[in-house]
């Protein structure tokens, strides 16, 4: 789960914070229709501005910060430090565990100017694909929940409530200056908290020329993404007979021993499908750690058996339906 720190909003939500909301009552205790319309326009503009900043600005910054993380299966707080910097036009990142054994995740990211499909969807750039794609505001109801102060910084809380049963609700507290997500809570369809993430300090001028050596226990990763796509693609080998409305195919690669990995996003949420040829009986079921769900199923295609695993921050009903509607091309 923690590898998703490379997204603009690493973790997600729950609705327990104090938002500052001010109500204005015009004469006679009634709002005019023009007041309501004006307020709606302001909200729409502010949501678009926040999503655009979140998708574009953080990748260009040098920053270092500490944050806490907690998920429903482990009530204890975990602490991490993230260091993000740009070197020779390429994003780099280190995610360090501050509790337990000294270990970290190291990532060489994408080049500046590389806009992923997910970031393009966040910015509302859908007309360029020449397809009838659902806009984010057709998938989620967005609400500006007011100003909030996190890690000593002024931020704005944005609530995203799904308009269907195929994704989770998310509360993002977005730094007003940088677009970094300073706090993120995720809840399931029953309003139960799945995971919580929150910065406790943030330094926008870190010394990245004198970083300590990488921990002996570390995992390296390189960003593999399609930059600035101008058309939607489909997997080369497999076909998903159903994906939730608004989700689009964002990439494919092989991992480990020729396991096909297909990736999908709606801009706010992602899930991946792993397809691996297997022998013998294949276990079927559901596993979950915090907000990250894994649904396992079996597929028989051209007299061969495959293990299907759908992984993502999505409800069980979504993952099961995806897994049960996969076939070859």
SSE layout and pairings?
Layout: H1 33-56, E1 63-71, E2 74-87, E3 90-97, E4 103-111, H2 117-122, E5 140-150, E6 153-162, E7 169-175, E8 181-187, E9 193-203, E10 217-222, E11 238-240, E12 248-255, E13 259-265, E14 270-277, E15 285-289, E16 292-301, E17 304-312, H3 316-323, E18 326-328
Parallel strand pairs: 4-10
Antiparallel strand pairs: 1-2, 1-9, 2-3, 3-4, 5-6, 6-7, 7-8, 8-9, 11-18, 12-13, 13-14, 14-17, 15-16, 16-17
Structure explained in plain terms:
The protein has helices at 33-56, 117-122, 316-323; strands at 63-71, 74-87, 90-97, 103-111, 140-150, 153-162, 169-175, 181-187, 193-203, 217-222, 238-240, 248-255, 259-265, 270-277, 285-289, 292-301, 304-312, 326-328. It is mainly beta. The strands form three sheets. A ten-stranded mixed β-sheet has the order 5-6-7-8-9-1-2-3-4-10, with helices on one face. A six-stranded antiparallel β-sheet has the order 12-13-14-17-16-15, covered by helices on one side.
CATH architecture of the largest domain: Clam
Oligomer: single chain
Radius of gyration: 21 Å
Uncertain parts:
1-39
Tally the beta strands: 18
Keywords:
ten-stranded mixed β-sheet, outer membrane lipoprotein receptor (LolB), chain A, Phosphorylase Kinase, domain 1, mainly beta, 2 domains, six-stranded antiparallel β-sheet, disordered N terminus, 329 residues
């Amino acid at each position: 789960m923690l590898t998703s720190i490379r997204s603009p909003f690493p973790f997600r939500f729950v609705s327990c914070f104090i938002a500052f909301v001010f109500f204005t009552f015009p004469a006679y205790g009634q709002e005019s229709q023009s007041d309501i319309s004006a307020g709606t326009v302001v909200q729409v503009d502010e949501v678009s501005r926040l999503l655009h900043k979140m998708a574009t600005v953080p990748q260009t910054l040098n920053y270092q910060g500490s944050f806490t993380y907690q998920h429903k299966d482990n009530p204890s707080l975990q602490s991490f430090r993230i260091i993000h910097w740009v070197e020779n036009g390429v994003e780099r990142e280190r995610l360090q565990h501050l509790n337990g054994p000294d270990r970290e995740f190291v990532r060489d990211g994408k080049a500046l100017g590389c806009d992923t499909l997910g970031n393009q969807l966040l910015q509302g750039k859908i007309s360029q694909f020449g397809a009838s794609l659902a806009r984010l505001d057709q998938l989620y109801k967005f609400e500006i929940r007011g100003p909030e102060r996190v890690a000593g910084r002024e931020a704005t809380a944005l609530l995203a409530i799904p308009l269907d049963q195929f994704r989770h609700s998310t509360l993002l507290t977005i730094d007003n200056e940088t677009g970094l997500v300073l706090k993120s809570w995720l809840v399931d369809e029953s309003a139960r908290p799945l995971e919580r993430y929150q910065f406790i300090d943030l330094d926008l001028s870190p010394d990245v020329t004198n970083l300590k050596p990488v921990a002996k226990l570390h995992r390296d990763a390189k960003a593999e993404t399609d930059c600035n796509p101008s058309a939607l693609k489909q997997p080369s080998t497999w076909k998903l007979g159903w994906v939730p409305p608004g989700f689009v195919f964002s990439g494919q690669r092989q991992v480990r021993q020729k396991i096909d990995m297909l990736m999908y996003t709606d801009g706010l949420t992602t899930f991946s499908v792993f397809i691996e040829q297997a022998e013998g009986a294949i276990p079927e079921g559901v596993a979950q750690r915090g907000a990250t769900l894994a649904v396992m199923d079996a597929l028989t295609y051209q007299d061969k058996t495959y293990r299907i695993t759908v992984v993502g921050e999505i409800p069980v009903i979504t993952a099961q339906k995806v897994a049960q509607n996969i076939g070859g091309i």
